[in-house]
Amino acid sequence: MANATRMTSRRMATRLVELGMVTEEGAAKGLAAIGEYAPDLDEELVGDDVLDAIDEFGLAVWVHGEDVDDLEEGYRGILREAAALSGGSVVVGDVELVRDADGGEALHFLRNGEPVWWPVEHQPGDCLDQLTIMECIGDLEPGGADPRMFYELPGLDVCEDDVYVLATPEQARALRGEFGLDLEGLDAQKPQYGPPATAPFGTFEWYMQDDARTMSEPAREFLARWTAGMDDALARWRTEFLPQGFPFDFSLASLDALEPLVLDRHPGRDSVIAAGGGPFVEGAVRYIGETLLRVVPSRWGYQDMGLSDAYDRIPMIRSNTPAGFLQTVVPLRRLGALAEHRERGLLAASEGFLRDAVDRHRKAQAARRRPPETEGA
Question: Is 144 left (phi over 0), alpha (psi -120 to 50) or beta?
């Protein structure tokens, strides 16, 4: 808890109404609940009393750090409480903790009628996966023009509860500055999403449309140019760089045949990365990607978020799976790894990463107690 000005339950109710976080009716109900165990509503709130009061006003989602009696029921409660804070714009249903035949676990639920999967991993003792909740709770934020985001007040130790509050950036700063809540993520920017996909859920077209709604305009324009020019670019690359007899058939075996051509040209990773915009390496990136698209359900992806990581401003291949199972292969990085390690078969092995994601999704679908929705890859 950060230092805050003197705060009482009554003062808190007034400020929450002024901030637009609760209605007058909600404030009255919260004060009535607090009054049952702390009758003096003008007494200063100290320490965790502030967080307890926030909870009574219906603004907090608690994620228990210790064992729970029933994992599925624990997740169900968290999802429903988080969705309820949206005021109706987010509706959650059909919550199910799925365990497949290989012991893998995933949390499945419907968000506004569309399936969502969260990967979960439980340690012995039936503790909720707090890390996954922290990484994925944004799935339950209101969309459109609603600026509210989930801000976390994490427990100090592994087994302590985490608490989440749905607030606008201005409200979150007030909760920290006036109420003393050490909320994390005050500098985070909420992604601006486009309209929802209209293609049938789980189809190739749906995945492409869903990607597009989260991409910046420059990223969408780049990906459109990249894919539209694919056939002509590969034809030029084939003519200019591939020897006669090369098996240009988009098979995994053809990726094996490509490797010696790469190794002859590039002594290491840095050489490949430096030549990434050149015609030979760019053509190889295109060919690897188009091969993967043909052997495993996947699609081209691209993002332009101003980040300095291996996945920004670089063409990639994404598995056609829900986000909870998503796997990504960056052909340029695979070419760099081949040149660095000189291990044959590395390019074709890229298929395995994508295949594993698709297989895990299918196993989870098959393991559901309820009939699975159409989520075809």
Answer: left
Burial of 331 per CB tally in 10 Å (0-12, 13-18, 19+) = buried
Six-digit token pair at 205? Answer: 């077209």
Domain locations in the chain as residue ranges: 9-177, 204-367
Contact 301, 213 (CB under 8 A): no
Cβ pair 21, 38 in contact under 8 A = no
Rounded Cα distance between 209 and 298, Å, is 14
The answer to whether 155 touches 164, Cβ cutoff 8 Å, is no
The tokens 């023009």 sit on which residue? 145
- pLDDT for the residue 361: 95
Is the pTM for the entire model greater than 0.70?
yes
Looking at residue 377, what is its pLDDT? 45
**How many CA atoms lie within 13 Å of 274's alpha carbon, on the beta-carbon side?**
8
Q: Is 31 helix (H, G, I), strand (E, B) or coil?
A: helix
- Residues across the chain: 377
Report helix angle 217-228 to 230-241, nearest 10.
50
| Tokens standing for residue 158 | 């592994």
Question: DSSP letters of 287-315?
Answer: HHHHHHHHHSSEEEE---SS--STTSSS-
- Residue among 121, 127, 123, 149 nearest 61 (CA): 149
Q: Which residues of the chain have pLDDT under 50?
A: 3, 377
The pLDDT value given to residue 144: 83
- Cβ-contact 95, 75 below 8 angstroms: yes
